[in-house]
Amino acid sequence: RDYFASIIGIDSKTDLAVLKINSFRKLPHVTFEISHNIKVGQWVMAIGSPYGLEGSVSVGIISGMGKYSSEVAIDENFIQTDASINPGNSGGPLIDLNGNIIGLNTTAVGVDSGIGFAIPITRVLPIVEELIDNGYVERGWLGIGVQTMTPALFNALDVTNIKNGILINMVGPNTPAEMGGMKQGDIV
Question: In angstroms, rounded to a whole number, what is the distance separating the alpha carbons of residues 108 and 115?
Fold first, then answer.
């Protein structure tokens, strides 16, 4: 069906938007059941319209949790799946076998790679709420570059009193980090 809609808010970093559909009829809607029991190996279904084929469903498993995709502009903890996520599936739900929406399909690594990513619904819902409330998403920003400390870095920097952390390898000029006194070489 075609409906007129107005844009409530857009978050380009996560490729999410909230639209308000104008209709005189009551429309069916989904309910979200937050599940923190998502596990690698769990069966899932990806729903969408890949290549313009409406109402397409593909099945697969959760291949990984807390994954990063260079295809999306932000560093997220994505759900990785081998359920086919092709062009046109973006924005469709990733659901578990009980019909619970556990994520929103967002991207895949190349075409026909069998590696797709979904934004966990636990991340989507706060973004949607902020878009509804403000029309945009406000994010914290420090202005630093970091890298994980390795045993070799601890050794090279002659640090013996701590065992883990991140190394600040860049502090941008006129950033909150610089104004707060952070320096390149600090270990947090």
Answer: 6
Full-model pTM: 0.69
> How many Å apart are CA 117 and CA 81, to the nearest integer?
6
Say whether 122 sits in a helix, a strand or coil.
Answer: helix
d(CA 87, CA 93): 14
How far CA 144 is from CA of 53, 73, 176, 185, in Å, comes to: 43, 17, 9, 11
H helix intervals, the chain: 121-134, 151-156, 176-179
The residues near 103 (Cβ < 8 Å, ≥ 6 apart) are 79, 93, 94, 118, 119, 120, 121, 124
Distance from C-alpha of 69 to C-alpha of 27, rounded to nearest angstrom? 34
26-74 confidence digits (pLDDT tens): 888 776 767 667 889 999 999 888 777 777 888 999 988 876 555 554 5
What is the residue-wise DSSP string for 87-102? TT-TT-EEEETTS-EE
